[in-house]
TrEMBL record:
Residues 1-27 form the signal peptide. It comes from Rhizobium loti (Mesorhizobium loti). InterPro entries: DUF2059 (IPR018637). Keywords: Signal. Residues 81-124 form the DUF2059 domain. It holds the Pfam family DUF2059. This is Uncharacterized protein DUF2059.
């Protein structure tokens, strides 16, 4: 089960970028903001992304395991359920001024422009291209455009993409690992489980940081420098920072709960736990 952690980090990376998607539309409530963000659409991709991450493990699981995974995935990472849970966790976390400022940005020309770039980069074809072109673009920036490189670093910091990616990956890994150990009758204290997980996930943060920067370099490669500065300023603003901070905390907590629930159903399907 711990071999699933590295592929999961790539899924978490995608989520860190997708959570910043925005669609131009008036929005004054949290639900409207999330609807304007295309947040629900992002959530619908978590289940398929999780399945793909599991299937990308180095060795093909035995048929019994594949069947159990299929059963466990039924109802797992349900977008409507997660959206409601996330919004419940975020209730009253943002002020009316925050929501008004967020709505204003999403309807601005810059908001529309950034949205178009982010949505375009989220397609399957563009994701594959990003894996190849992102590192190339990033590698040229230190000598060709250091100012742009610094802005990319600030954007990644503003979104807390690396910290969040690492925390969510470890928490999801913990949830699944604790279920595995419990099913095997080898339950361990929390600190020992986390120590084991960190040992098995050596290099996790480095990999996440590289993937984040590759993605940012690719997505915003055609955004003029002045617009990039304005976008970074929005992310660093009270409204932008409050929203993304609260959203990623809530998203991480809900995904961890879903991972734990998935792990339980998985071991029930394998016959190692009772329903």
């Amino acid at each position: 089960m711990t071999s699933f952690v590295p592929p999961l980090t790539r899924l978490v990376l995608a989520l860190c970028c997708l959570v910043s998607l925005s669609v131009a539309a008036p929005a004054q409530t949290l639900h409207e903001i999330n609807k304007a963000n295309g947040f629900h659409q992002m959530l619908t991709g978590i289940g398929p992304g999780f399945s793909a991450a599991v299937k990308s493990a180095p060795e093909t699981p035995p048929q019994k395991v594949q069947d159990a995974l299929a059963v466990a995935m039924e109802g797992a990472f349900d977008a409507n359920k997660m959206e409601a849970a996330i919004e419940s966790r975020m209730a009253d976390k943002l002020t009316a001024r925050d929501l008004a400022d967020l709505g204003s940005f999403y309807t601005s020309p810059l908001g529309k422009q950034v949205t178009a770039l982010e949505i375009q980069a989220s397609t399957q074809e563009e994701r594959e291209r990003k894996k190849i072109e992102g590192p190339k673009i990033l590698g040229e920036l230190p000598s060709r455009d250091p100012a742009r490189l610094e802005l990319y670093k600030k954007i990644a910091d503003d979104l807390s993409a690396v910290d969040t990616g690492e925390a969510v990956a470890l928490n999801m890994g913990y949830a699944m690992l604790s279920e595995m150990l419990g099913a095997a009758g080898k339950a361990l204290p929390d600190d020992q489980i986390m120590a084991l997980l960190r040992q098995r996930s050596e290099g996790l943060r480095r990999d996440i940081e590289k993937d984040v920067m590759d993605s940012v370099a690719y997505i915003y490669r055609d955004l003029p420098l002045d617009d990039l500065r304005r976008y970074e300023a929005f992310l660093a603003s009270p409204a932008g920072s409050h929203y993304y901070d609260q959203m990623q905390v809530a998203l991480g907590a809900v995904m961890t709960d879903e991972a734990r629930s998935f792990g339980h159903r998985f071991f029930v399907a394998l016959g190692y736990r009772k329903a």
